[in-house]
Amino acid sequence: MKVYLVGGAVRDELLGRPILERDYVVVGATIRDMLKLGYQQVGKDFPVFLHPESKDEHALARTERKQGQGYTGFICDFAPTITLEDDLIRRDLTVNAIAQDDQGNLIDPYHGQTDLKNKILRHVSDAFSEDPLRILRVARFAARYHYLGFTIADETMQLMTAMVQAGELNTLTKERVWMEIEKSLKDGAIHIFSNVIADLDALPFVTPWQTKWDQHNANTLADQIKRLDPHNDTYLRSAFSLWQYQADLSEYNLEQDHKIPKAYADSLRDLQANLPLLQSDDWQADTLMTILNQLDAWRRPERLSVFISTVRVIDDTCAARAIELNKAYKAASNVKAQEVIALGAKGPEIKVEMDKLKLKRIACLFSEQ
Hints:
Blueprint: E1 2-6, H1 8-15, E2 23-27, H2 31-36, E3 40-41, E4 48-50, E5 57-60, E6 63-66, E7 74-77, H3 84-89, E8 99-100, E9 106-107, H4 112-118, E10 120-121, H5 133-144, E11 151-152, H6 154-165, H7 174-187, H8 190-199, H9 203-206, H10 215-226, H11 235-244, H12 254-258, H13 262-278, H14 285-294, H15 301-311, H16 316-332, H17 337-342, H18 349-368
Parallel strand pairs: 2-5, 10-11
Antiparallel strand pairs: 1-2, 1-8, 3-4, 4-5, 6-7, 8-9
């Protein structure tokens, strides 16, 4: 029985990037062997175990044979006779098919180190085409490592194009598509992800409402996302909204049909509904009040926070008006029901009079400018 560190941990160590998790492959062992050593079995489709102390994932070396369409139609063989090379050849990219033994020696039968040095993302074998999810993974890796100068090998682009043309992306669940999108949003280079998807003519399968994507879109989005605060709780929702706000969503139910979380979809719709007002030539107290009401900022200030965090990076005018909008909210939110009740307002009149007083305080801000 031999244990090897594999995949992303080896790749990122060679690239000098932080290692977020460590995955291991075990050669020459059976399920019974692993259980005797105290490992906890957690894998359903194939044997994956948690180390009794570190809890790192350990998978038995395996081969896969395609049966049917999609990314789930595989028959796995995890016999103890499966070699490390057998296991590594089933992996997606050469840079992910490097193993390291317990002495630190690298096992690299498919020349992943050469591709790392040359900054190339290349598929290991034609078995790549058996799993359409790998198209999105490659787009995500291209985005993640773009800052290092990585590009996708021509032959890998050709293979992925053929997979798209064959309709393989139709076999992916919307949940899995969203998972890859969200991971790319977290990496901060969703514009590169979109470049790859567009070059593959795969937009209709991934973001069908996004009918147009070119380098101008990519450059604009990259500049905007660069100015977001990645440590802000609103970061991912802002990045998603900036990525998609110019799309026509009228015929799409993002949550139900595309499994996009409601928080993301709501933030996008808020931006689409209120950005025209923020950019309007008619910028006065009534306009600010309308935006605040449409965002339900009085009861849900988080919506306003996401909106302000998003629009402030669109351009200088939006940034300036976002500051004014935030000042208007602070001034108006100090209005309390007791103030208008003390003036004689009752029942439904209370809200009406509160709105009048809020608008008056916002207008005062304009008169002070």
